[in-house]
Design brief:
Helix content is 17%, strand content 13%. The protein is α+β, with helices and mostly antiparallel strands. Among the domains are: 200-262, no CATH class; 392-452, no CATH class. It has a four-stranded antiparallel β-sheet. Strand 8 (293-294) and strand 9 form a beta hairpin. The chain is globular.
Length: 557
């Protein structure tokens, strides 16, 4: 019995300490910091006599986020492997480099997306007229399952919300909706981390605050100015964050009425920003070429995400397919009693074995949105490092005092998309953004304008006559000159330049987004990770889903 006495006494002592000590001091975790000692000057600039600069957060290795896989960066050949049977000539192989990043192991499921929807409903109650369009703008289009010549099998009513489909990939989600989900996930992961470290109080269980509308945690707002969150209500922060050695005194009453922030933003490790993967990242992760390497060289090019030249999995009991796709006309899953891919429509995530990076369904099940604006030509000559098209550079909108403006419900403007959907331009509680101006880009060698979606794409600024400001020339840029019957000026003998007036149209716009990978309704041709298609960013289908990615901070390997 004696050998159990000490542990019991120790436990009793700990419980006594827990009950008698300040809970905050026990559970708040002061971040590890390092003083600002300069090797160049030999001075400790954190010392009061040398300026008292705030210490920096100690360098820490970034952990792989939950449910994601780490993808070490490298060089690969991006583009088609199979014959270009579609004759689109838009997928020529080219060498690209991508930096290390994280990507979800699976496609975003109905269960995960419903959590997002329910959070929106709680924070922006749709019955409140101020927020009535916010929740509706995030809802997937369940009508994507309808077809003039097909029974939908009640999928319009069951696919998103029925428990039997909770682990299936969410569909009916547009590129814009997927992008908004990534932003929401960024904020929720950062919020959870701050609460666990003891810096932020639980926001939904706090009698001093109400989490609704503008009042919710947003990473960009916090990093810009912690005072802007919740309208400056410091009840959201723990005492560690708000306590100060010298309490600020009100100049009129000379009373200690306000607390100041002790916490320096530099004490925080950078928050991960979840986003859609770029086309290059997605293709690189899907190929997982490293399993085909010999020392530092790649032996051949993989046709699929798995290491095989066929779609059949010889290791499976029934010689099943490696992925969920349409085998032939009218054949989506094989015959009764001898299935080929487990499902006629989508299948649950993780149904099929992962690729060498540990990623599931990088071919088949559902195709996936990526970040890029679609253009047939990928400009390797201009940039071959972390390539992506679609950058629109913005900055926070400032008020007359120079502070960033956080949107309230009065600031929210609603846009009507071409398909009739009403979407908010910004959510209450987010920082209002405006495009960067010419003053911001003046003499900048990296970029010259805010909207770069059509960069080097045939516009006047991309031509050799970039300095011409003739509006008529800009209008006829895509009109062909008439050369069959040249017109000569009789007086001067010079050729008169005449262009046809035929209007030019195209399916490709600055809102056309790339989606990658084959789906449950695609033939084998589209399972090649190099294949690419496009759809307008506000449209949705029953065969496109998405997964999130995040850039790795620090060492690339």
């Amino acid at each position: 019995m004696k050998k159990f006495l000490k542990p019991i006494l120790f436990s009793t002592t700990v419980l006594t300490l827990l009950s008698s000590c300040d809970k905050l001091q026990l559970f708040s975790k002061k971040p590890k910091t390092v003083e600002r000692i300069s090797e160049n000057t030999g001075t400790n600039h954190s010392a009061p006599e040398n300026g008292g600069l705030a210490p920096l957060s100690a360098a820490e290795e970034t952990e792989t986020p939950k449910s994601m896989a780490f993808i070490p960066g490298g060089t690969f050949v991006m583009g088609k492997v199979q014959q270009d049977v579609m004759m689109e000539n838009n997928n020529e192989p080219r060498t690209k480099q991508v930096s290390s990043f994280y990507i979800d192991k699976t496609e975003t499921s109905n269960k995960e997306y419903l959590i997002y929807l329910d959070w929106l409903k709680k924070v922006f109650p749709p019955e409140n007229p101020k927020y009535k369009h916010i929740y509706a703008s995030a809802l997937p289009d369940e009508n994507v399952w309808r077809n003039p010549l097909r029974s939908d099998g009640k999928l319009t009513e069951t696919y998103l919300r029925h428990p039997s489909f909770q682990d299936y990939p969410v569909v009916g989600v547009s590129w814009r909706q997927a992008n908004d989900y990534c932003t929401w996930r960024t904020n929720r992961v950062a919020e959870k981390g701050m609460i666990e470290k003891g810096w932020l109080n639980p926001l939904f269980d706090n009698s001093e605050i109400t989490t609704e509308g503008r009042n919710h945690f947003d990473v960009e707002v916090f990093e810009t100015d912690p005072n802007l969150l919740y309208g400056g209500n410091k009840a959201i922060y723990t005492e560690y964050v708000t306590q100060a050695d010298d309490v600020v005194l009100d100049s009129t009453s000379n009373e200690a009425t306000n607390k100041t922030f002790k916490l320096n933003i530099d004490e925080f490790s950078p928050f991960l920003r979840f986003r859609l993967p770029t086309e290059a990242e997605w293709e690189y992760a899907a190929r997982a070429d490293f399993e085909n390497t010999l020392y530092n060289s790649i032996r051949g090019r993989k046709k699929y995400p798995w290491a095989s030249q066929t779609t059949r999995n010889k290791k499976s009991k029934y010689y099943l397919q490696h992925a969920n796709f349409k085998e032939s006309r009218g054949n989506y899953s094989g015959i009764a009693g001898w299935p080929s891919d487990y499902g006629d429509i989508t299948t649950p995530i993780k149904t099929f074995p992962p690729n060498a990076f540990g990623l599931y369904d990088m071919a088949g099940n559902v195709a996936e949105w990526v970040n890029d604006i679609y253009r047939p030509e990928i400009d390797t000559d201009y940039n071959d490092f972390n390539y992506t098209r679609g950058n629109v550079f913005t900055k926070p909108k400032l008020d007359e005092t120079g502070k960033a403006i956080v949107a309230d419900y009065d600031d929210v403007k609603y846009d009507t998309l071409p398909n009739g959907k009403i979407v908010p331009s910004v959510l209450p509680g987010q920082i209002i953004k405006v495009p960067v101006t010419n003053n911001d880009t003046y003499l900048n060698v990296s970029y010259q304008k805010a909207d770069n979606r059509d960069f080097n794409d045939g516009d006047l600024a991309s031509s050799r006559d970039f300095n011409m400001q003739d509006p008529e020339r800009a209008k006829r840029m895509y009109n062909s000159p008439i050369i069959e019957k040249p017109i000569i000026n009789e007086e001067t003998g010079e050729l008169v330049y005449v262009y046809d007036k035929k209007p030019r149209t195209t399916l490709i716009t600055n809102y056309s987004r790339v989606y990658k990978g084959g789906s449950w309704k695609d033939r084998e041709f589209w399972l090649d990770p190099g294949q690419r298609r496009f759809l307008e960013e506000y449209m949705a289908t029953n065969y496109i889903g998405f997964r999130c990615a995040a850039s790795k901070v620090g060492e690339s390997h």
